[in-house]
Structure formats: C-alpha cells, structure tokens
Structure prediction request, 743 residues.
Amino acid sequence: MIETRTLPTRYVTHPGEIKTSSGKTLRTDEMIINMGPQHPSTHGVLRLEVVLDGEIVVDVIPHIGYLHRCFEKHAEHMTNYQQVIPYCDRMDYLASMNNDWGYALAVERLMKIEVPPRVEYIRVIMAELQRIASHLIAIGTYGIDMGAFTPFLWCFRDRERILDLFEMTCGARLLYNYIWVGGLSHDLPPGFVEKAKDFCAYFKPNIKELNDVLSYNEIFVKRTANVGVLPADVAINYACSGPTLRASGVNFDLRRDEPYGVYDKFEWDVIVGKGEMGTVGDCWDRYMVRVWEMEQSVRIIEQALAQLPEGNVQAAIPKRIRPDAGEIYVRTESPRGELGFYIVSDGSGTPYRIKARSPAFVNLSVLPEISRGCMLADLVAIVGSIDIVLGEVDR
Amino acid sequence: MYELLQQLLGDSILVYVIGAALPLLFILPYALVTVLLEMKVSAHMQDRVAYMYTGWHGVLQPVADIVKLLQKEDTIPGVADKTLFRLAPYLVFMGSYAGFAAIPFSSAYIGSDIDLGVFYIVAITSLAVIGILMAGWASNNKWSLFGAMRSAAQIVSYEIPTALSILVAVMITGSLNLQDVTHFQDGGFWNWVVFGGPLPLTQKLLLLPFTLVSFFILFIAGIAEVNRTPFDLPEAESELVQGYNTEYSGMKFAIFYLAEYANVFLVSAIVVSLYLGGWTSPFGEFMSGPIWGFFWFVAKGMFFVFMQIWIRWTLPRLRVDQLMYTSWKVLTPFLFVCIFAVGFILVV
Prediction:
C-alpha cells in the first residue's frame, strides 16, 4: 500500500463561508496558482506559488532550482583554476564579464598577483560596458512586464552595440571567458577605443529618450510608484545588495566602499533612490536607479578610455595556478549586487571548495516580504524590479 | 442594397445570405492589411523592419500566417468543456460581425437600415463578453478564467462611458439611425458633430468643447471595449500568459484574432460615423458620391485603426483598479457634464 504524504505548506489560506440568497452555504477559499516556470514574466524558470484572493496576493513562495547546473561542484573537478572561468560566465549570463572578474580577482588575491595597470583599466571598461548591457535588459524587460513593448527593443538595439564591442575584443557575444587570472585573453583590438567613445556619445541621448517614453510615462509611474516598497531596514536584514539596496536609500556600493580594480581613480556618483515619484524603495526607484547607473557607467568608461595606459595584458598571467593552502572571500559589485566568491585552496591545482554568493538569489528572498497584499499585476512589477537572472539564482 | 439584390435575384433566401456575407468581403481583406500594418508600424517604431521575405517587403506574410494556422492541429485541452470551448471563438466573432450590419459604409450600402442602429450596435457587441467568459471558463485554466473575469468586468464598466458618449452625438443629431446621423453631417468637415454639427455658429461654438471631450472619451472607451493596450488586461501576456485565449490554437485562435481586428475597425467606424461625418466628404460636394463615400469611410476608419496601433505600441498597461478608476471616476463624470451641457445648449 502506498502511503500518502501531505507536504507541509508554509502559506496560510483563509477558508470562509458565504450564504447565498436561497439559504445555501458556499465554501470560499483562496486560489493557489502556479506562476511559472513557463510564464512570460518570471524572467526565466522561476516558479512562484501564488496564493490569491481575487486579484490580491495573499502569499507568494518562490521555488527555484530549475536551472541548477552544479557550478560549485563542477569547479572542484576542473583540472585547474583557469577552467572555472567559463562556468562563471554561465552563472549570470547577462553579466559574464563581472562574474569572471569576481572570480579572477579572488584567485589573484589568493595568489597575491599584481596585475598590470592596463589590465585593470580594460577590466573596468569591460565591466561597466557589461553593466550597461545588463541594466538595459533589466529595463527593457521591465517595460514588457508593464506592457510597453517598444522600449524593450530600443534597449536591445543599444545593447547590440555593446555586444559588437565585446565581439570585436574577444570573439564572443554572451559568454566571453575574457578576464583571466592575472590578465586578459586578448588585448584591445585596434580601433576599439574610438568605437567605445562613439558608443558613449551615441548612448547618452538614448537614456533621455528612454526616460521620455517609459520612465516618466504617467501610466508607468502609476503602475510602479508606491508598489512593492522595500524599506531600508528590511533590505539590510535580507542582505539585499546592488540597485535593489540602493533604491531603498542605502548608500552602499562596493566599487566605492571596498575599491577593487581602479574605480577609485574615477569621478562618479553612487545612485541612491530618493522616492521621487512615491515612497523610497518602491519599484519605480529600483527601476530608476538602474537608469541613472547606466549614465554613471558611461562616465566611468569615458574616463577610463581617456586614461588607458599601455602595457602587456598577459604579463602577469601565472604559468601554473597553484595558490598556497588558505581561503579567501572577495566581493565585487556586479550589476545585480554583491557578488562574492569564497575559495578554499588546499595547495593543489584545483580549488578545494568554491562558494558563490549570488546577489540575485539573495535579492529574490525578499520577494514574499514585499509582495504580500499587492495585486497580481504588482507582483509582476516587483519580480521585474528585483531583476533576477535565474542562471545566477540557481547556479 | 437589398432592393438591388432582390431585383437581380428575385425574392429568395440567397439575397439575404449574400447581403449578410457582404461585410465579410470587407473584413477579411481588411484584417490581412491590418495585421501587416500592425507589424510594420510596430517594427518601424522599434527600429526593426518586420517581415521582408514573403513577397515584396513581406506583404504576403499575413496570408502565409493564415495558411499556417489552417494547417495546425486543433488541440482542445482534455479537461476543457468541449462544447463551450468550440463555441466561444465563433460567439466572440459573431458579436463584432453582427455589429457591422448597422454600419453605413457609404450612402448606397448599409447592411440593415434600422432606426435603432446605434442602440443595436451597443447591444450586439456585448455578446462578445459572453463568448470571452465562455472561452475562459471552458478552458479550465486558472489564467484563462482570470482573463475572462477581468474582461467581463472591463467591458461592462466601459459600456457606460461608450453609451454615454454615443448619447451626446445622438442628442445633437436627433437620430439613432447611423445613416441619418451621417446625412445630418453632410456638407463638409465643419458640419461634423465633433465640431458641433450643422447648427448656428453660436451654438456650434458653445457645443465645441463638449463634443470634443465626448469624442475623445468615445475613442478611449472604445479601445477599452476591444481590449487593446493600454486596456489589454484580459490578455495581458506578462501577467495572465495570454488571458482567455491561452489554451486556443490553430484556427480557433485565428478567429479570436479576426474578432479583435474586426472590433478595432468597428470602434473606429462608430467613432467616424457619429462624430466625423461617416462617409461624407470633408470638402462638401467635392469628391462625394457612393464610391467616394466608401473611400472616405474606410480612409477615416483606417486612420483610427492606425491610431489604435500607435497607442498600443507606445503605452504601458494599466492595472485593474486603475482601469476601473478611469472608467467610473474620470470618464463617466466628464460625460455626465457633457450630456447636461449639450442638452442645455440644444434646448435654450
């Protein structure tokens, strides 16, 4: 005989009764509905178990793991440290450069490698270009979540130019394997600097255009302002990071507060949500922080391009990567927030253990907290505003 | 029109069948053109080029789409209520198709020249709600049901502003027969109801703000009635997957689409007939007559179809509560003021 098993449910439903005019009693209850894993606006294979009272969201439970690819276990079974980098590419596939850099930086700190200044500058340029590309997707898909299709394709049009720059540099358009431990796979090709400058000049007016059609659109503001408000203390308690944290008014950016690379050599501002259209930390703030961050990234890129030093980008690449036994935790600011790599080395050629602290995973955990009591359409707005990439949530 | 057919074919059932099928001769080519127009307009708004390979600049793509949809397997979910599931798309299309019966395409052609034409259109287009509810319920899918419920609430709410803004035009023209309403506005664009109708100048000027407001409200409410962005909540793909037609595929899905495009033109046709002179020429006697009348009617109608496409690809979508708010707290009070003022001006 098969034993039936009831799975523990964590959500609370509120069954009730109503009397009809003919004196019958009807049972009422909330509706439990699966949003995803195949749903247009869960940004990948996220499954949300939503308890709905009409259009009101009573509770929501995110279920993850549909894109789990054993990054950490794979990393332990490579033949050397360098081979882990393509796997880092595939974690957050919209911000591969930033992921590579986070991992490469951790190994470099573990081995105490000093990379040449040219490498640092190129890494900053690449990371910021990647940040713009990633934010463009976040903004564009957020427009789709709100029902505006046109800004999405405008964003993709601009992202295309960035991908062209990457393709020119390392041949790949999505997963680059460009930032290596101690250096880079290729130097910048001739003409890159001019093209990148062209892009900066081309891109700045487009931000204004985007703001005109989407950000300050009356309907868009009504849909996002005062929705899914994430107060600063809740954001800190849930360890949110990146734009999600900054939109709540917390002035914290690892590029400035724990400088890596050469970020301390440039002039730029950390963007913080101000509650311009509603409350601090609402969906509109989270969206808008990304828009303004793109502008700051352009500033950084322009300065880095102007100061770019000469040098050999492969000078510091070690012949064999064999860090001494020890451990290290390095965190960097990826487009989604604090991306941490914890690496334990036993002195051999492969990492003994790697743990990635993924910002999207941590940010996602705040979803139930801020979406109880909102409407179904708001839930879509909140999920979109957190900007998760399931590849990174599940790793 | 019927007289002509009766003279040609005698008094047989064939006359009525042909008479009833005539709007199809317009709707089907129109739908093909509009599908292409929608794709091309949206593409150029988004820095794309859309279809380019099927025929010159992809003009044959809608035909190819229909051929594809005809060939597709017609799936019905196992748990669906099969009868209702099959019936629903036809009911939705019937609602909008029947509406075309009272639309005057030209001075020589109106499907049915009934005195309650406008009233008939308002009543018969509500039939689509039943079809949509049926589709949502029969699909046995929670998302579909959600879409259907939203749609019912939306169409019922927006019927009020639609009917009220139609009333404003009816008060000025003094007729519910769309052919009479159009004749009333004959003689150039300054005689259109949107500019106050062919009344004395002082009355025209007094009426102008109210007719303009109710004209815009009729257009907005019309967009909401046919579930197009920014009011496309019943099929909001980012929330409800595809709303009430999630489970539909193949030709049934195509019928839903056809109904949507037929509705888009129906709304434009009502706006044009009531407020913009229908088939009358904007330049008085210049370029007028039955054939030119058809041209003007379709041209004006297609302009509003283009407007709806333009709006669709520009604006985000409203939320359910905001949708209701717009209908009940913004549009309806404005129209009450309009009706009161128009009545006052006409009487005094």
Notes: The two ends of chain A are 39 Å apart (CA to CA). Residues 71-394 of chain A form a domain with the Cytochrome-c3 Hydrogenase; chain B fold (CATH 1.10.645.10). Chain A touches chain B through 29 residues (CB under 8 Å). The mean pLDDT of chain A is 86.
